[in-house]
Amino acid sequence: MKNLTKKLLSAVFAITLAAVSSQAIAKDSSKPIVIPTHNWSSQVVMAYVIGGIFESIGDNVKYVSADTQKVYESIRTGDVTISHEVWQSTFGKSFYNAIAKGGVIDAGTHDAMTLEEMGVPTWVVEKGLCPGLPKWEALKKCHKNFVTPDSGGKGRWLEGPQSWHGDVMPDRIKALGLADKWVVKFAGGADALWAELASAKKEGRGTVIFNWTPNFTDAEGFTFIEFPPYKDGCRKADGGDGSCGSPKGWLKKAANYKFPKTHPHAYMTFSRLSFTTPQIGAMAALVDIDKMDHKDAAKKWLKDNEAVWKPWTKAGM
Ligand code: TMO
């Protein structure tokens, strides 16, 4: 008799628990969550990683290739639902402009700190091609080791696509008094940066390129140049003289303001998810070193890291 009561009680308890936990998460709309893809590897892999996480909780997702600056306006108007890699240096301004207009929310910050800056592969420092690096003042004396066929006798900075940092680097060269020795050229895409790294290494010649962390290059050694510290307002576009380096920055997540209401389960998951520097570096490496397709890389990452992401999908953990 006692046993039966116990069994009954525990059955009632289990049913109550099940009811509570299924009620704790409201049902998401079946409308697709629109996730943007951009033009660097970790971002595209992470798009499919997050899409895969949303699908695992029963949601529908759609991917759109989007402009890296205009995407914040698209999130504001609801054409795009989220952005999962808002890098402070390149996109902070567009992100806050869209927040200020109304309709974009800050959905939290990744664990990883970021830097988006000019630098050299560490072997360039070791080879003594610019004595005094990583301090920027070293650039006053070494430009001859960084001349390329397209640089008109000046040292070349190979910037990323102009859609990332705008005129920040050309402004900086002028503001620091380096314009008679250095010139900025914009790469067509990230792959041109990695091709330049490989060919400079093969030829043993100096190269200054734009790069960032977290990235796959963290593993093999990349030295960022140390410019005068960043302060809000120091850039030309923000009213300053432009003589500052990039911020030691944050990596945020953005969402349309309706997303928490239309997809509460997905939003809870998205607001909690946070990736570390090695995790983001690994997402990039699967594509840029292992040469995997972005979607396959995401599948592999999800399979290898269930213990990392599954808890984010569960309420009250
Ligand atoms: C936005 N990016 C990480 C390429 O600098």
Written account of the structure:
There is one protein chain. The radius of gyration is 23 Å and the shape is globular. Strand 1 (33-37), helix 2 and strand 2 (61-65) form a beta-alpha-beta unit. The protein has 317 residues and is α/β, with parallel strands linked by helices. It has 13 helices and 10 strands. A 5-stranded mixed sheet has the order 7-6-8-5-9, sandwiched between helices. It has a 3-stranded antiparallel sheet with strand order 3-10-4, with helices on both faces. Strands 1-2 form a two-stranded parallel sheet. Bound molecules: trimethylamine oxide. Residues 40, 87, 90, 116, 160, 164, 212 line the site of trimethylamine oxide. Trimethylamine oxide (TMO) is lined by residues 40, 87, 90, 116, 160, 164, 212.
Secondary-structure topology with pairs:
Layout: H1 2-24, E1 33-37, H2 41-56, E2 61-65, H3 71-77, E3 82-87, H4 88-101, E4 104-109, E5 115-121, H5 122-126, E6 155-159, H6 162-165, H7 168-175, E7 182-186, H8 190-203, E8 208-213, E9 222-224, E10 251-256, H9 259-262, H10 264-272, H11 277-288, H12 294-304, H13 306-309
Parallel strand pairs: 1-2, 6-7, 6-8
Antiparallel strand pairs: 3-10, 4-10, 5-8, 5-9
Judged by helices, strands and strand pairing, the structural class is: alpha/beta
The Cα radius of gyration reads 23 Å
What small-molecule ligands were found? trimethylamine oxide
The coarse silhouette is: globular
Q: Low-confidence parts lasting 5 or more residues at pLDDT below 50?
A: 12-19
β-strand number: 10
* Percent in helix: 40-55%
Q: How many helices?
A: 13
Report how far the terminal alpha carbons are from each other. 37 Å
Order of helices and strands: HEHEHEHEEHEHHEHEEEHHHHH
Question: Percent of residues in beta strands?
Answer: 15-25%
The description of the largest β-sheet is: 5 strands, mixed
Widest beta sheet: strand line-up: 7-6-8-5-9
What number is the mean pLDDT? 94
